[in-house]
Amino acid sequence: MMTQSLKILASLVCLALLLTGCSSNxxxxxxxxxxxxxxxxxxxxSKAGNYxxxxxxxxxxxxxxxxxxxxxxxxxxxxxxxxxxxxxESSRATSSRFIRLHPQHLKLDYVYYLKGxxxxxxxxxxxxxxxxxxxxQRDMGAARQSLVDFGILLNRFPDSQYADEARARxxxxxxxxxxxxxxxGQYYIKRKAWIAAANRGRYVVENYPTTPSxxxxxxxxxxxxxxxxxxxLVNQTQKILSQNAPNYAGLGEAGNFKIEDGQVxxxxxxxxxxxxxxxxxxxxxx
Length: 286
Fold this sequence. Notes:
The protein is an all-alpha fold. The protein is 70% helix and 0% strand. The model is unreliable at 21-32, 273-277 and 282-286 (pLDDT under 50).
């Protein structure tokens, strides 16, 4: 009788172990399938341009499976989805987190590129550009950050597939930052803050020497120096301006500069605007 009871007990234990093993396998298979389903559905939504749905799925995937098989790829896709949905702050924040967590990732150049692109787009607005509202007159914090991000991309990954586009965008950003300094210099001229105006002009000449705003920077320097009675500096700067931009508005036949309020800022052509300052009239007289 005792032997029979032991046999029954052993059978029950084996059955319980068997059922537990099956349950564990089923649960693991269900978990893996769920993680895959989240990722695949997010990718389908993203490819269809439904970025809000993609973001919801990717965020849920990150929350449920922070160390899963798709965790790093999900973060990359989330950066892109935020960017495409014009949530540039979230795109930048997610980029920064990814860079911090995965400093040796093979696609780190892509992350820096998207990070810079998010700041770049944040600084620009389609309707502002086509309604002729100067982006350079707004706060340029995002533009400066974008320039830094693209610069890191080029320094760390000079052969990246994103390098050429980053260089082109950096040209545009430098042009915008230089224009911003000219606007600030104009403000100082109107306020009769001659030293501050001259310093802004010199800053443009020294820090953005390849931009179309250099003649405007020289003009600001001349106006400031004239008002301060610094004749030698006026003559030196006029000579530089006449050599580099002989047809600049305000320069007489003898190369002397005539002060006229508001003359420093020149208008840019549509082609110059649309090509990020690469083509068309840049504002210096031809």
